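Hi Y.,

Following your request, here is the sequence exactly as I used it, all 136 residues.
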Amino acid sequence: MASPCEILPICNQIECHPLYPQEELRSWCAARGIQVVAYSSFGSGNLFGAPAVAQVAEEMGDSQARVLLRWALQKNLCVLPKSIMPERIVGYDPAHLQPLPNLPGRYLSEAHECILDDMVKSEGLTKYCWDSREVR
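Below is the corresponding structure, written out as tokens. Let me know if you'd prefer a different format.
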């Protein structure tokens, strides 16, 4: 990305979620001051019901969607959650990701974050959206 560009972009929008974390690309962007914007934070809906996500949501007393959004926000990602339901849209607003009763602040515990981070080890790297390598 950098070699043909005189001016680097301000942000890079990529698919990013616990099963497709793109750590190397995120590190590359961070080193150059490029903000990563995550799309498909819910794995196109495929992460709902995943055992790790369900476990963390149940233990935290919150929705799986909000757990996945917190995971992304804690990775310093901007998120683009999608819904057609007004109540979900309001619930996805970072201002409404309220502190949880059993967890101070708006963050996943280190243990919960590790559970989500480890999903890729047990379930494998999984891309749900289009692949730019196929674009000609």
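Strands lie at 11-15, 35-39, 78-79.

Thanks again,
Q.
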